[in-house]
Amino acid sequence: MALTISRRSFAAGAVLLPIACASRGYAAGRPASRRFPPAPDIVNPVVKNRADAQVFRNADDWYYMTGSVPEYDRLVLRRARTLEGLHNAEERVLWRHEAKGPMSGFIWAPELHQVSGRWYMYFAAGPSGGGEDVFRIRTYAIVCDGPDPMTGTWRVAGQFQAPWDSFNLDSTMFVHRGVRYFCWAQREPGIDTNSNLYLAPMASPLTLAAKPVRLSVPTLPWEIRGFKVNEAPAFLEHEGRVFISYSASATDARYCLGLLWANADADLMDARNWTKSQEPVFTSCPETGVYGPGHNSFTVDRKGRPMLVYHGRDYAAIKGDPLFDPNRHTRVQRLYFKPDGMPDFGVPVGNGPMPERFAPVAMPGAWLAHAGTTVEVVGNAPLANTQFRSLDAGGGAVHLSPILLRDHALAKTAAGSVALVPLEQIDSHPGGGRFRRLAGTEAGAVRFLADGSGDRALAVTGSRIGLGEQTAPSAQWRPD
């Protein structure tokens, strides 16, 4: 898989693996061998009260993260060796808004980039003083005087020279086919929208090398709810296509992601080469309890797998202006791809340990899934129906709970089958729906030994789920 990113870039020894991260309320553990896939350590939300998050893995092997703070008064940066480490990583204030002038008010949506070997942080800012003037938002940058952005001194580099002197924000940049591009949101004179998306090659860190192309104008019903908004572009390349995700509508529960794409070898400055999704690709999800997901970025995990970073709230109802509700939290989850190479964003997975998908070794191309409370193994279930998280069940065991039914988990029934049952009733089932995650007998596989069932483990028979001999191929699962 070829993946270019920017902002918005055991074998058979049976070893017990308690799951996830003890310091955040879940049991902690590590595999006995690096060949054995452990349960994910990431717990959402990764960082609370940080919106508009940009996370990327840099060439120095650090993960860097910046984002908007609820006070909108400063630019911050943190880094960690792992994505989960961003949760409690030390955060440095790089710059604070000025006492007066055009950068004395709101500070929004920072992004960190390297240009010609120097670190720049781009951000949107407006003047203080109240009234409509505080929304005279323009894009600026600060620049670091040294190679380490966490220790260097930062100063204002200047203002982005946009094509019009109008509201603009949410800039990102990426390099494609040797050309550095700038992509941003702006209100264009003569177009009755709050912001559209534009793209142009760069001549310098603050100037464009050519007239920009207008990539997208909010016209679809889901792009104009509350406000007519296309903003927060983020670039991704995958298997011969380039993608730009973006956010649309008001910043409450109606906020969502759209998607643009083009062939990777096409002229990106020709708007005719871009296709726009006619439906949102990522929206609020009451089942998982995440509302207003958006302003995303892309990164990769330590295995190089694509990861989606975004913010979202834990509730839909907001008092007053949603911009001043502080509880947009930074979240991370796997980004999957459909067979045709298009991204499959699924749904925001909700709070708690990162969910996984489980493919039976005996049935390549199929997944453990559920339809309502029915558990099965199928090859064509929607992504969200195949995602299960491991919840601490005590004593080193876990409950396997689907993200769309947060109050249910897999449990053995009196008849010996396996079903999804309410967590509040799970203790009445044999073994209490408790499973122990062990190394599989197949390389890279896991098995789930059911408590109170001797040597029986979660297994597939046909398309149904039950318990089988723990060393049998039918009881081996490949996590993804």
Mind explaining what this structure looks like?
By secondary structure, the protein is mostly beta strands. Helices cover 0% and strands 44% of the residues. The chain is built from no helices and 37 strands. It is elongated and about 70 Å long.
Question: SSE layout and pairings?
Answer:
Layout: E1 3-5, E2 43-44, E3 51-57, E4 63-68, E5 74-80, E6 91-96, E7 107-115, E8 118-125, E9 138-144, E10 154-159, E11 168-176, E12 179-186, E13 196-204, E14 207-208, E15 213-216, E16 230-238, E17 241-248, E18 256-263, E19 275-276, E20 291-300, E21 306-313, E22 329-334, E23 336-337, E24 343-344, E25 352-353, E26 358-360, E27 367-371, E28 374-378, E29 388-394, E30 397-402, E31 408-412, E32 418-422, E33 435-439, E34 446-450, E35 456-461, E36 464-469, E37 477-479
Antiparallel strand pairs: 1-16, 2-25, 3-4, 4-5, 5-6, 7-8, 8-9, 9-10, 11-12, 12-13, 13-14, 13-15, 16-17, 17-18, 18-19, 20-21, 21-22, 23-24, 26-37, 27-28, 29-30, 31-32, 33-34, 35-36
Give the structure's gist in a few sentences.
With 480 residues, the protein is an all-beta fold. It is 0% helix and 44% strand. It folds into two domains: 43-68 and 75-86 and 157-351, Tachylectin-2, Chain A (5 Propeller); 358-479, Trefoil (Acidic Fibroblast Growth Factor, subunit A) (Trefoil).
Keywords:
Tachylectin-2, Chain A; five-stranded antiparallel beta sheet; 2 domains; 37 strands; 44% strand; 480 residues
Percentage of residues in DSSP E strands? 35-45%
- CATH homologous superfamily assignment of the largest domain: Glycosyl hydrolase domain, family 43
Determine the mean pLDDT.
91
Number of domains: 2
Order of neighbouring strands in the sheet with most strands: 1-16-17-18-19
User: What is the annotated CATH architecture of the largest domain?
Assistant: 5 Propeller
CATH class of the largest domain: Mainly Beta
Tell me the number of helical segments per DSSP (H or I, 4 or more residues long): 0
Q: What's the total number of strands?
A: 37
Shape: elongated
Calculate the terminal CA-CA distance, rounded to whole Å.
16 Å
